[in-house]
Amino acid sequence: MLLLLFKLYLLCSRLHTLTEATSQPAARMTFTLRETAKRFPLLGHHAPAGIVLEKEPNTVISAEQKHLKSFNFQNPHETPVEIQVPWTECNQSDPQQTVKADCSFNIYLVQKMEANKLFLCGTDGEGTACCDMDLSQKTPRCMSSAKIQKIKKSIQGFIIKEGEPAALNQQTSTSHTLDLKEMLAIHRFGRNRVGPTIHDREQHYVGLVPSRRRDDTLQGKVFGFYKEKNKDPGLYSDMWIPFVTRVCMGDRGGPKNLLQFSWTSQMNARLFCGEPESRRHFSELVDVATVEKEQWEDTRVYALFRNECSLLLQMCVCVSADECVCVCVCRGMSAVCVYTIRDIERIFTTSTFKGKVPQPGRSRACVQDSRTIHMDVLNKIKENSEMEEWVRPVDNSGPILFNHHNYTHINVDDSQNNRSDKYTVLYLSLNKGDIHKVVQKETQTFIIAEYQPFHHRHHVLTFLLHPPTMKLYLTSRTELVQLDVGNCTQYGDRCGDCVLSRDPYCGWNGSHCTPHTQDMLQDVSRADHNICVSSGTVEHSQTVSKYPPGRDDARYTWIHLERNTSSSLEDSPGLLLIPRMSPEQEGRHRCVSEERGYTRVLADYTLQLENRAGVKKSTSLLLGLCVTAALIQSLSC
Predict the structure, then answer these.
(1) 3-class DSSP state for residue 256?
(2) 161: number of Cβ within 10 Å
(3) pLDDT (tens digit, 9 = 90+) per residue, 543-577?
C-alpha cells in the first residue's frame, strides 16, 4: 500500500510538472539579479508603511515605524540617512496643541506631494495624526499646515490601519480604513467628514482612483475597487465578488435625520473579467494600477484578478476491489483586465438599480449640496446602491493576460506611449518574489523577461516604478531593492539579440543594444531580426552567451560531428547528457539556438578521453553519478 502511494505520488508530481510547464507561458528570458541588483537591508520587525521617490534620482524615502529613512542607490554601501519625525502633537513648546505624556505615533501612511514634501499619517492606538513634512529643510518638522487643519481635526479620533489605500486631494484626504466592526469602506476626512452607512458585508479595498473634472469641478469623483465576500454558501459559488464603487468628492452627507455624515452619492457595480465563450471568469480582485490620461474619461484601470483553485489533474489507483486512492492537483490562475473611467461612469449613469425599476427623481450626478436631497430619494439611496449591469473591460474585450502564475501586485508604464510605436509595459510580482515584465501592444501581450532579485523566496510588499530612469523599487520585509529594468546590455551584444528581446525600452544603435530612441532598430510586434540585415548591420560571431537561456522561445540543438544530437535533457533545454563517455563521443560539440530563423552558437566544447598510457588529454567526464553531474554542468549553453 505504501509503495503504491509512493509510486502514485511520483507519477502525480511528474504529471503536475508537465501540466504546469504546458499551461503557463514562460518569460522569454530570465535574469538572476541577486548579485547585481542594488539593495539595502531593512532592519527592525516591521515592514515599511510605504516608499516614495525623492526629487534627486536614485533616492528613495522609506517610511519606517517611527521615522523616515533616505536610501541613496548611487552609493549603496553608505548607511541610509535617518530622518526623525517630530510630530506637532509631541511639541510642548506649541501652546495650541494638547501635549500627551506618552507621544508615540507609528507611521501608517506616506504620500508624495510636490518636490520634497510628504504627507504623513500615524496612529498611537487611540487616534490618528496627520501632517506635512518638507524634507528640503535642514531640520524638517511634521507640521500641521493650513491645508490639512480640517483633515487633522476630523481624523483625530479615527484609527487607520497599516497598508491602507489612500488618495490625497488638495484640502481633503480620501481613504478607506477599518472601523470598529471590521468592515472596510471609503471615508473622507477634511472639511466635511463622510463615511459609509452601516452594513454587514465583508469588503477589502485594493485601490482608490480620483477622477478630477477640469471642465466641471463639481463632478469630481473617487472610484474605489474592492472585493466582497460572497454570502451565497452554494458549493459552486465564488468566494469573492469584485466591485467598483463611486462617490462624489463634494458629497456632504445627508441632513440630520437621514444619512447624516454618510455618503449620498455612493453607487456600486460588479466588475467582470473573463471569457464568456470559454465560461472562464476571474472573481478575486487582487490589485489595480491606474494610467491617467489628459481627458478624465480616458483614464485606464488595469485590474489584477485571481480565480479560485481549479482542478487540473485527477488520478485514482485502486489497490483492491473496494479501496482506491485518488489524488487531485489544483491550481489557480491570474488575469489582467483593463477598464476605462468612461465605461465605469456609463454603468453608473445608465444602468437600473439591481432588482428595481428605474427610480424617478434619483440623480446620478453630483449635486451642489447633498443635504438638500429630498427624503424620498434619500430613502431609495439608503435602500439600494448596486447597479444591475456589470462593468466590462474596454471594448467589451477579455483579459489581456491570463496564465497559471500567482501574481500579487501590478504596476503599469505607458510613459513612452507618445511614440508612433505605441505599447504599454506591465510589471507583475509573483508570490515567490520574482517580477514579470510584460509588453502589451494592441491585442498582443507577451512576457519578455523575468527578474529574480532576491536571494531567498520573499513576498513583495510594495513596488514602485520610476519611468524616467527605468528603475523599479521593491520592498520585502527584509530588503529594499532597485532593479534596472532598462538595462539593455543584458540581451546580448548583437543586433539580432536586441531585436528578438522585443523590449520597447531597448533598441540597436548600430553597435550596442541601448535604451530605445526613435532612430534605433526595434520591432516589438514581430521581433523581425531581418531589419538588422536590411539596415546594413554586420553581425559579429559570438560563441558563448553572456546570460542564461532561462525558459525562452528558442530551440536548442547540440551538434556533434556535424550531426544533430537529440540527447538534451527534457526538462532542461540547453543541457547535454552523455550517459557514457566513449570514443564515439570524442570531438567537437556545439550548442546552437534557433529563434524565429535567427541562429547563434552559444557554446563550443571539444571532448577527448584519457589514453591508456596515462597521458592526459582532458579530464574524464564520467565517473559515476557525480561525474555525470559535472558533465551536465560543463556541457551547458
Answers:
(1) coil
(2) 12
(3) 334 334 444 567 777 888 777 665 444 445 566 77
- 8 Å CB contact between 250 and 274: no
* Strand spans (E) along 509-597: 513-515, 555-560, 563-565, 587-595
| 3-state SS, residue 585 | helix
CA-based nearest residue to 412, from 359, 342, 348, 338: 338
Query: What's the DSSP call for residue 34?
Result: T
* Cα radius of gyration (the chain): 29
**Do the beta carbons of residue 351 and residue 388 sit within 8 Å?**
yes
- What is the mean pLDDT of the segment spanning 262-268? 92
Identify the CA nearest to 441 among candidates 502, 510, 368: 502
Span 505-538, pLDDT tens digits:
999 998 999 987 777 888 888 888 888 887 666 5
Q: Any idea where the domains of the chain sit in the sequence?
A: 170-270+352-386, 491-534, 555-634
Neighbours of 439 (CB within 10 A): 21
DSSP β-ladder status, 29-32 and 444-452: parallel
pTM over 0.85: no
Spatial separation of the C-alpha atoms in residues 334 and 332, rounded to whole Å: 7
Q: How buried is residue 27: exposed, middle or buried, by Cβ count under 10 Å (0-12/13-18/19+)?
A: buried
CATH classification code of 491-534: 3.30.1680.10
> Cβ-count burial of 177 within 10 angstroms (0-12 exposed, 13-18 middle, 19+ buried)?
buried
Distance in angstroms (rounded) separating the CA atoms of residues 589 and 577 = 12
420, 575, 421: which is closest to 499 by C-alpha?
421
**For residue range 245-254, what is the model confidence (pLDDT) as tens digits?**
999 988 999 9
Cell numbers at 249, concatenated: 468628492
Please report where in the chains the cell 470598529 appears, as a residue: 180
